[in-house]
Amino acid sequence: MFERYGGTLEPEELADYDIPGKKTAIFSEMDAIIANEAIFAEYKIRNYSEFQVFSNPDYGNMNETERKSFSETVSQMRNKLSRSSDSQTLDEWYDSPLIRLQTLTALERTYVGYEPSLRSYIDRDSRPVVVRAAEQILHMRNANLISYDLCRTFSLYAAVVVVFSAVAVILFVAPLLTTDRMQKINLIQYSSATGRRILGIQLAATAVSAFVLSFLLIVAAYAPFLLSGAGDYWNVPILSFTGFDMLLYNITFGQYASILAGMTLALSIGAGCFAFILARFSTNMVTMLIKTVPVGIAVAGIAGLSVNMALSYNNVVFSAIFRGRWDAPEILACAFVAVVGMCAAAVVAMREKRVEVS
């Protein structure tokens, strides 16, 4: 639909797409398959409507063996309707009658049957930000044609990039600073005022290095994803609702990707600053590695909680911690890590000027 109608779906375009007509054609196609397959005749199933009734029985009246046998039978029938085979390609699977029907049903639920669900959120949800987003989506008829799983998939991908970037920064920064301590170079630096300022220069170099390294990793990681087709949605607004997710802000996918890149940079800089602090108090590589492991684990945890499903009502930081009362708390969490890391590292660097050498 995006290729046909662009970024938004107008009422006349929805009528032109004719979801009911397409579903009727698929029902006829599946009825023909059912009429020619023995497994359906064995259970006296003559059309898709009868298959729907057959495939939704009262499982409470079956024992475990009967449930297993029945599930296998239904699975075989579904394979017939999806034309499943060992040689079937992914494109052929998507083009099969059952999968096309499921796609049309999802489109119908998203662009036709969205109002009852949104009104339920407006009337009953306790999260003010979600209620506001539901009102906006209802007002605009849930018309944004963003791919339903694009932001969810991209946010998970970005969370992995955050972890990789933070670990790369830690492994790059910490050994260099620890080497100075191992070789006692810091004691020579303490002999002059200029030398005592070295740690401050190293802190600045750490922040810049973390930014540059993280930026290069973001470009290297994001480019393949965007070039695979996601980049076509760069200027498409993401504010939308499906049966299992709601994106909360009226920004484009390009802005969404940029925000996730900014969160990655913030967490990477924060991780670099914490690695700087731990390296300051490490006199050998083993001690440094032991101390930096918890930092890497913490950053990975924050990435999983904040970057994954960012700006969605399913985000853990947004829903579970802040209860949907703050706008974009997941972004604030990443910024908080960066600010705390930089401030703590700055305090350590300033204390270095007054350290006593015995």
Can you characterise this structure?
Keywords: Membrane, Transmembrane, Transmembrane helix. With 358 residues, this protein is mainly α. 71% of the residues lie in helices and 1% in strands. It contains 18 helices and 2 strands. It has a two-stranded antiparallel ribbon. A hairpin with a 4-residue loop joins strand 1 and strand 2. Helix 9 packs antiparallel against helix 10 and helix 16 runs antiparallel to helix 18. The longest helix is centred in the middle third of the chain and has 33 residues. 32% of the residues are buried. The mean pLDDT is 86.
In brief:
The chain is mostly helical and 358 residues long. The chain has helices spanning 2-5, 11-17, 19-36, 38-42, 48-54, 64-81, 90-94, 97-111, 115-124, 128-139, 150-182, 185-189, 193-196, 198-227, 253-280, 285-306, 316-321, 329-352; strands at residues 240-241, 246-247.
Q: Helicity, in percent? A: over 70%
Please state the overall shape, judged from the principal axes of the Cα atoms: elongated
Count of DSSP H/I helices = 18
How do the SSEs run, as a string of H and E? HHHHHHHHHHHHHHEEHHHH
User: How many strand segments?
Assistant: 2
Determine the structural class based on helices, strands and strand pairing: mainly alpha
| Strand arrangement, major sheet | 1-2
- Radius of gyration using CA atoms only: 28 Å
Spans of 5+ residues with little confidence (pLDDT < 50)? none
Describe the main β-sheet briefly: 2 strands, antiparallel
Mean pLDDT, nearest integer? 86
What is the beta-strand fraction? under 5%
Give the end-to-end Cα distance, rounded to a whole number of Å.
73 Å
